[in-house]
């Protein structure tokens, strides 16, 4: 309602003065009526001649009276309107606006978000409607006006950034526009326009911003308050098209594999697991179902396996998930699974009518690997089976990695390495993980090499060595990896060493360990820790914690703020670059903990190793949503072009013609980055000898909400931008008609008032036979009254010129 | 020569300060006679009037031989003429005659209203009529006054008796008590008591009364149709009466000096009129002037004396008209 009132009062800068002017019109009318009512009676003898004269002059006198009254009312009305600084619209405003020779800059912002691709009639989409409105606005440009075109779909940007008056150019640009695959990002578009205006030092009073969009709930900007500083028009006119009504839509939000890296040699009786999230958007959510096909596709577009699943939505539920296990085993024979081969998983909704089409599918990729190569750095190489000596930590871990027996038959290939062997530059090549059982034996310079290994995607798992006394290597490790943990330099025994410390059963939210969740309580119950390095880490890094937690206290005895979320950990994790650092605060030694002897040990080693390496985005696989400008790994450097494989069906190599819109790269510290955001969904690949790479771009999962936006909330958001008004959807061109220049109109009306005053004087003097005596015009009376007041003369109320 | 500081009794401003109408009339006559060198009433009569030096062409029958014998100079003897003139003065006492341009006041009859001195058209007409009758009665002429509005309201008989003067004065003073025979339907409560002008009826009644050839003096504002006036004067002409038409108007009526929008109130039940006087002044003056011209033309056509009397101007010229006409009328007999 405040918006409506504000828009109704838009024609005036000071509407109160305009209303006052309208109200003051009643003054001359009242004077006119009162003067007729309160006239002094004048007895008169020669009435017959007066009546005769009156009958002859009656029409003329009435005309003169009405004319004078009209002029006087007009003078007061126009004076009131002039000081109210009218902002005329329509043809009159256009004419007045034409007094100003300076043209305007009209910024046409078109929302090309994915939601605008919804059908709005036979063969017509909402985007077509928006383009038609934009063309009407272009056609309504006045001489001297220039226009720019911006798109609001993420990434928002300029279509025509430099204002141009060439309508043909504008029309051509509009015809080439298509709806995108991302969310609306109107705020960024307005910010860009504001920056553009600021750079060009454009005058805000001569700018008009026209926002054309469907304004659905998928809009990104509505989640935050509008920033008045980003007001594109900088105080100029802001015209907004009305939101479209909502439509129902169903969308595949995501496909997520359980493991991004799959070791083929380890697949026995299983498959490639993935979870598909499907959402539906509707005002009412009755029970519904849909059909979903999930397919595994190789690099050549060949479908290796596919499954069809029913997607079921209970009543009132908007999002549901479907889990699938693609039978890889059955197609392994089809695969020539070379190391690093990348397969694509595509989830596709079938037989969906209405709503959006581009969001009915989603993709992800998994990397097939034959083996996982792990180096176990121990004091000595080899496995001793001497029962007296017991198992060294390295032996415990090696056995855990290959529990079926001694030998390299499993999916994990272990390589025993001594600490001194790490000094060999080639020692870390082709490794996936390094398990440091004796970090105390690693040379300082090798710590840097290990850190670089982790940054490039490797996993460094540091175990506490079973040593007494101080551990100076910790300082070197922290210096190299900078994990942000608090670590003690000496091992600490638990107060009751016999009982040991228990592992805390925190809710298990660590994704790599999710597969242990079902048996977690049973697995950790018998585990005890008798000795270990005191390590505290932030909550996100503390994967497995010990009980009771150690709380760091400050000098006053209070709990330090920085320590509130820190816990003493058994297993800590820290991301570094594309890789990870994992630290076990106790030693794999039965004197320190009974963990190696408990059932948790083997699955913990395996799941942590596989999970971390499997979740770690592989250098060759990058997943993004439309509108992103993803940063690629260093493995992508050296490329200048990509082929885009269409998402509509089977993989079709389309060659270089449909490569990235603007191929080009800029080198960054963390890798290479595309020059322009990727706007088209699809699977991009580069067939390089350096190894397979896959850039998977899907439609924005948040762009499919096609429900109608809350118009009141939207208006409130627009209020944050300042003054605005709705676009006339029936005739968009009229909305662009120049709202009169405030100051010019005011002065023009004041000149009009002056003209009316002169006209009133002339009419009163010459049409009313005022030549008999002094002038009888309104202004003349005011002038004479002022003179009388100055001279102290009393005003004469009528009367005759000559007395008897 | 009259004393320069003596009051001018022919001036309405002086007369307005004099209450009784008979006194006014005497003052008018005295004022007019003062300084006369030659009687306008000379003629053949048995009563000696004065001597005049002979000039060639004079009738030698009137030479005074006694004077010639004593002084050896030729003088003629002049005698006051015997007259039998009948003077009938028709005085308009209608509502419109009660208008007088005293600021903010309206004169009613011969009375003063309010604080200001009023001099209505009726005051002017009555004073003039009384003065004429006074002169006539002094010459032993028979005189009579007739007061009318929509009809003859009061008429004195023709007489030159000693109490005729008093009768005439009383009649002129009684005009205030006149009422209209048919009060106007549009009459408002706050309007002055009117008497409509109906000259046609008055002429009919007056002609019926005058069975001897008379000198008829009509003193009125003549606010009636020109055709009616023409028909009435034609009746008098047909009866061979000598007629003096003295049209009496207020200076405001002649000039229409009003400026402020006012509500004009008809004194003869014409109703009210809200108007802007400045817008109508020109048209009003045109209509009035056209009426005055037409009345004068009618009077001239019948060879009647006509004069337009401004109530702000002295009564002398009007009275001189009367004297001259009287002499002329006597000469015709």
Question: How is this structure best described in words?
Answer:
Chain A is an alpha/beta fold and 804 residues long. Chain A contains 18 helices and 35 strands. In chain A, the strands form seven sheets. In chain A, strands 15, 16, 17, 18, 19, 21, 22, 24, 25, 26 and 27 form an eleven-stranded mixed sheet that branches. In chain A, strands 4-3-2-5-6-35 form a six-stranded mixed sheet, sandwiched between helices. A five-stranded mixed sheet of chain A has the order 8-14-13-10-11. In chain A, α10 crosses α14 (601-615) and α11 (444-455) packs parallel to α12. Mean pLDDT of chain A is 76; it is low at 1-9, 549-555, 557-564, 652-665, 769-775 and 793-804. Chain B has helices at 12-16, 21-33, 65-71, 121-138, 164-173, 199-209, 226-238, 251-255, 277-301, 316-332, and strands spanning 42-43, 47-53, 75-80, 86-92, 142-148, 152-155, 215-220, 242-249, 262-266, 272-275, 305-310. Chain B has 333 residues and is of the alpha/beta class. In chain B, α4 packs antiparallel against α5 (164-173), α6 (199-209) runs parallel beside α7 and α7 (226-238) packs parallel to α9.
């Amino acid at each position: 309602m405040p918006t409506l009132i504000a828009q109704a009062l838009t024609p005036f800068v000071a509407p109160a003065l305009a209303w006052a002017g309208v109200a003051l019109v009643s003054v001359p009318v009242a004077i006119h009526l009162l003067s007729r009512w309160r006239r002094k009676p004048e007895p008169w003898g020669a009435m017959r001649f007066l009546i005769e004269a009156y009958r002859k002059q009656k029409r003329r006198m009435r005309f003169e009276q009405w004319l004078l009254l009209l002029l006087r009312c007009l003078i007061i009305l126009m004076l009131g309107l002039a000081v109210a600084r009218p902002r005329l619209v329509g043809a009159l405003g256009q004419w007045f606006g034409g007094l100003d020779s300076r043209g305007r800059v009209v910024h046409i912002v078109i929302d090309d978000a994915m939601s605008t691709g919804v059908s709005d009639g036979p063969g017509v989409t909402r985007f077509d409607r928006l383009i038609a409105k934009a063309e009407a606005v272009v056609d309504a440009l006045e001489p001297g006006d220039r226009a720019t075109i911006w798109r609001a779909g993420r990434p928002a940007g300029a279509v025509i950034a430099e204002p141009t008056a060439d309508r043909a150019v504008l029309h051509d640009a509009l015809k080439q526009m298509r709806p995108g695959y991302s969310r609306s990002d109107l705020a960024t578009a307005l910010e860009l326009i504001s920056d553009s205006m600021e750079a060009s030092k454009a005058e805000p009073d001569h700018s008009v911003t026209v926002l054309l969009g469907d304004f659905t709930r998928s809009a990104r900007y509505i989640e935050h308050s509008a920033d008045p500083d980003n007001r594109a028009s900088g105080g100029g006119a802001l015209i907004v098209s009305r939101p479209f009504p909502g439509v129902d839509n169903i969308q595949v939000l995501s496909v997520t594999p359980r493991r991004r890296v799959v070791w083929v040699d380890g697949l026995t009786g299983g498959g490639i697991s993935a979870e598909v999230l499907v959402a539906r958007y509707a005002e009412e959510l009755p029970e519904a179902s849909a059909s979903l096909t999930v397919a595994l596709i190789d690099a050549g577009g060949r479908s290796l396996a596919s499954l069809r699943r029913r997607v079921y939505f209970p009543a009132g539920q908007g999002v549901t998930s479907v889990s699938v296990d693609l039978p890889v085993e059955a197609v392994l024979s089809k695969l020539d699974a070379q190391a690093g081969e990348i397969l694509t998983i595509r989830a596709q909704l079938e037989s969906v009518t209405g709503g959006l089409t581009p969001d009915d599918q989603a993709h992800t990729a998994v990397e097939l690997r034959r083996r996982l190569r792990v180096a176990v750095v121990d004091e000595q190489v080899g496995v001793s089976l001497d029962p007296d000596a017991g198992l060294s930590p390295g032996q415990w871990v090696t056995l855990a990695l290959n529990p079926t027996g001694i030998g390299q038959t499993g999916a994990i290939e272990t390589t025993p390495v001594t600490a001194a062997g790490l000094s060999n530059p080639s020692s870390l090549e082709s490794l996936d993980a390094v398990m440091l059982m004796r970090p105390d034996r690693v040379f300082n310079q090798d710590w840097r090499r290990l850190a670089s290994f982790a940054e490039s995607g490797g996993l460094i798992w540091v175990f506490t060595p079973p040593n007494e006394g101080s551990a100076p290597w910790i300082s070197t490790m922290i210096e190299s990896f900078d994990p942000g943990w608090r670590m003690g330099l000496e091992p600490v025994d638990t107060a009751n060493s016999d009982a040991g410390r228990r592992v805390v059963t925190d809710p298990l939210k660590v994704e790599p360990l999710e597969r242990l969740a079902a048996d977690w309580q049973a697995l950790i119950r018998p585990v005890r820790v008798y000795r270990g390095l005191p390590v505290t880490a932030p909550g996100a890094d503390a994967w497995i914690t010990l009980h009771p937690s150690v709380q760091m206290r400050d000098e006053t005895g209070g709990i330090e703020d920085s320590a509130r979320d820190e816990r003493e950990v058994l297993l800590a994790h820290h991301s570094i670059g594309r890789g990870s650092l994992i630290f076990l605060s106790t030693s794999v030694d039965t004197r320190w903990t009974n963990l190696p002897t408990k059932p948790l040990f083997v699955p913990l080693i395996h799941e942590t190793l596989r999970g971390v390496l499997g979740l770690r985005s592989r250098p060759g696989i990058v997943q993004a949503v439309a509108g992103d400008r993803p940063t690629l790994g260093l493995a992508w450097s050296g490329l200048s072009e990509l082929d885009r494989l269409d998402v509509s069906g089977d993989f079709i190599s389309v060659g270089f013609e449909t490569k990235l819109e603007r191929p080009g790269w800029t080198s960054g510290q963390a890798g290479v980055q595309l020059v322009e955001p990727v706007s088209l969904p699809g699977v991009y690949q580069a067939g390089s000898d350096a190894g397979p790479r896959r850039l998977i771009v899907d439609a924005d999962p948040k762009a499919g909400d096609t429900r109608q936006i809350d118009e009141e909330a939207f208006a409130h958001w627009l209020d944050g931008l300042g003054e605005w008004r709705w676009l006339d959807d029936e005739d968009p061109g009229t909305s662009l008609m120049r709202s009169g220049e405030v100051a010019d109109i005011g002065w023009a009306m004041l000149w009009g008032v002056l003209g009316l005053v002169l006209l009133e004087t002339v009419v009163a003097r010459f049409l009313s036979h005022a030549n008999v005596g002094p002038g009888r015009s309104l202004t003349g009376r005011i002038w004479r009254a002022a003179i009388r007041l100055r001279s102290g003369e009393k005003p004469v109320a009528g009367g005759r010129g000559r007395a008897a | 020569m009259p004393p320069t500081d003596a009051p001018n009794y022919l001036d309405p401003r002086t007369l307005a300060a004099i209450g009784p109408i008979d006194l006014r009339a005497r003052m008018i006559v005295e004022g007019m006679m003062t300084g006369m060198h030659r009687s306008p009433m000379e003629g053949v009569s048995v009563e000696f009037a004065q001597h005049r030096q002979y000039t060639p062409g004079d009738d030698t029958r009137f030479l005074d031989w006694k004077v010639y014998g004593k002084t050896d100079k030729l003088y003629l003897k002049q005698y006051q003429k015997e007259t039998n003139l009948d003077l009938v003065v028709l005085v308009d006492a209608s509502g419109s005659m009660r208008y007088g341009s005293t600021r903010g006041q309206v004169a009613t009859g011969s009375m003063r209203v309010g604080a200001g001195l009023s001099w209505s058209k009726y005051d002017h007409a009555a004073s003039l009529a009384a003065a004429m009758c006074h002169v006539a009665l002094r010459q032993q002429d028979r005189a009579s006054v007739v007061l009318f509005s929509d009809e003859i309201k009061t008429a004195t008989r023709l007489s030159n008796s000693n109490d005729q003067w008093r009768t005439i004065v009383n009649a002129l003073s009684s005009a205030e008590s006149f009422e209209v025979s048919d009060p106007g339907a549009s009459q408002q409560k706050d309007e002055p008591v009117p008497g409509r002008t109906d000259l046609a009826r008055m002429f009919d009644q007056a002609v019926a009364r005058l069975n001897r050839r008379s000198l008829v003096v009509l003193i009125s504002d003549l606010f009636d149709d020109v055709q009616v006036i023409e028909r009435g004067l034609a009746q008098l002409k047909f009866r061979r009466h000598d007629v003096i038409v003295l049209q009496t108007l207020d200076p405001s009526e002649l000039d229409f000096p009003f400026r402020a929008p006012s509500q004009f109130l008809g004194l003869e039940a014409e109703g009210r009129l809200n108007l802007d006087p400045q817008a109508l002044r020109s048209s009003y003056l045109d209509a009035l002037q056209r009426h005055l011209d037409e009345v004068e033309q009618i009077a001239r056509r019948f060879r009647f004396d006509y004069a337009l009397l401004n109530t702000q101007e002295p009564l002398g010229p009007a009275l001189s008209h009367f004297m001259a006409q009287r002499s002329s009328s006597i000469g015709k007999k």
